[in-house]
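Please check both lines for our workbook:

___
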Amino acid sequence: MIDMVFDLDGGTIPATYPFALWAALIRRVPELSEQRLVGVLPLRGTANSERILLPKRSKLVMRLPTILAEHTATRLTGQQLDLAGSTLRLGAAKERPIQPYPTIHAQLVTGISDEVLFVEHINTQLGEMKIKGNLICGKRHTINGDRQSLQGYSLVIHDLTPMASLQLQFSGLGEGRQFGCGIFVPYKVISGLSAA
């Protein structure tokens, strides 16, 4: 897996953009829909209830199997994507290797609404993957679209070995990676919590 980073022109996009963005991407690169692990990291910007303002130096980051990286970059560089009436212009692309960090974070991992049961379920999944780490469950989030919505919690996992960190960053947790869910990125180091 690798992160493909595209330059973006700033502008405003709908707050419900994840669903429209994925639809626009697979129109340009249909092969993306055939790979379960393909993810689109959440875009960073200033948000209100209806719109998100993207800064001038915004990036679109896609997490891809390396075999799809070059093809995806070729098909998307310089393209304009229509997001429910807003235009997203993609610039140059570059590959960014995924690095092992002991602490990683996902903005939203999908799961059940009860926080205690959500954490138990995540711990079960980590056990099945033979991964040891400590969890910090954050705020509950919802991504709404015209026809669907996704719900879950932000999640920090810390005290990971390099191999476990890469495994989680490659595979993610939960559903909806194409909509920005369950994708882990490096986070500021947290240590000593388990001893408290």
In short: Helices lie at 17-28, 66-76, 115-128, 162-171. The longest helix spans residues 115-128. DSSP finds four helices and twelve strands in the chain. The longest strand covers residues 86-96.
